[in-house]
Every structure is written in structure tokens, then in C-alpha cells.
Amino acid sequence: xxxxxxxxxxxxxxxxxxxxxxxxSQNGSSELLQAFWQELQKRNLFDSIAVTYSGCIGPCxxxxxxxxxxxxxxxxxxxxxxxSEIFDSHLLGDxxxxxxxxxxxxxx
Length: 108
Ligand code: FES
What we know:
The longest helix has 15 residues, at 29-43. Strands 2-1-3-4 form a four-stranded mixed β-sheet, covered by helices on one side. By secondary structure, it is an alpha+beta fold. The relative contact order is 0.21. It has helices at 29-43, 83-91; strands at residues 6-11, 49-54, 66-69, 73-75. The site of FE2/S2 (inorganic) cluster (FES) has 11 residues, from loops. FE2/S2 (inorganic) cluster binds at residues 11, 13, 23-24, 56-60, 63, 65.
């Protein structure tokens, strides 16, 4: 198996209805994950990019959240319509999509 150049983690955590933290699942992460996998397949990038679902990444209120390694770039409120741009700009072009970046303060 080739080592991926980029690894995309899509938070797919779910929680019971009414849970105070909410969840990325409740905000559409399942559709988003499918969109990432479809784009990966469409572009046939299986040898260089990995897309994996994950549990809670942390800032649940700004989900669905997507974390890209090796940079550790966190995107928030990502939608299906952002997926193509994330591939073009970040995963293939090494330029993070500024408008989707999580604020630095969340890491404090
Ligand atoms: S549930 Fe996705 S970041 Fe917490």
C-alpha cells in the first residue's frame, strides 16, 4: 500500500438527540464523507490521498469538521459543495482553503 501524501479525516461522530455538544453526524457528515469518497474515486487518487472517517475531533459546534494531515489543517462547516475546491486547492495544490479554516483560537 503506498503511503498517502495527504490524509483526510472526516468527523463522523454521532450523539443522541438533544446531546449538548451536538455532532458532526447531525450536521451532515455522512453526506460529506460520501462526497469525499466520490471525488477520490472520480479523480482516481487512491495512491496519493486517503479519506477516512473519524470520531470527534473537538470543536463539535462548527461541524462537520475535516482534518487534513500531514499539515494538521482543520476545516469547519464543510459542505459537499466545498469538496472539489479542497481537492484542487489543498490536496493537490498545497494551498489550504482559507475561507474554511477553523479559527486558531480553538487550539488554545
Ligand atoms: S462531533 Fe465532530 S468534532 Fe465533535
